[in-house]
Amino acid sequence: MNEHLDTRSGAIRPPKRPVSADGEPLAEFRLNLSFGGSRRAVAIRATMKPLDQTGLLPILQQFDNEVVALAEEESARKGKKISCCAGCGACCRQLVPVAAAEARRLAALVESLEELRRSTIKRRFADALTAYERAGLLDRMATADQIPDEATRGELGLAVFHVGVPCPFLENESCGIYPDRPLACREFLVTSPAENCRSPGPDNIERVPLPAALSETFYRFSATGERQPARWMPLVLALRYAEEAGAEPLPRQPGGEFVQKFLGQLANKPG
Fold it and tell me: Is the pLDDT of residue 14 over 90?
């Protein structure tokens, strides 16, 4: 059974040079993905204009949708039904990791909202930080990406969940920014009973296996394409991080080159 993203057949082909509807040059990457007995052809298009990692993110979000869809197809092929559905927001009380670029993009999204919704969501972020600080978890959450072992990270994740603070973007138990949700949220699907998500434990949650977690590569991705230690933060710290980072510019390069480096790092991930 193949439990990884297999791109050996037509993997990363040399980028073509199509153009957008308005004549803008684009780089195109065509991938033939396989996972177990499922197959999927994917085309990724990227502008040749300079982008930073926040500009790269929408391209990766679309690619992640395709990878997750492949995982869903393989799950269905094995007779396992996805339990996740609109109105079930239990997982929206977990510790959700986001990369620095995702934090900046989420902060910009909040600033773009109309005033009443913007102030409401900012208040939810502030209330969440207060709740986690009162629970004695905020300092540990701020350095969660530096915890070396999975068991300790899991313990912290359960402690965060049991505080019961919903994601600031949660609306009526559904994601209020669904098209812009983080990569980690796209990749979290389960086939275990939905009610188990309300009291998760080490043995009662069955996640849908993924051929690749783009989020994990993004946490380690740099503008040079070199792997670096994973760097991420809990979503609830996104606004604070963006405010502290200010307008500090991020490295930029042509979007097609950015995508090519990301795909190369994804294909060469360890393990």
Answer: no
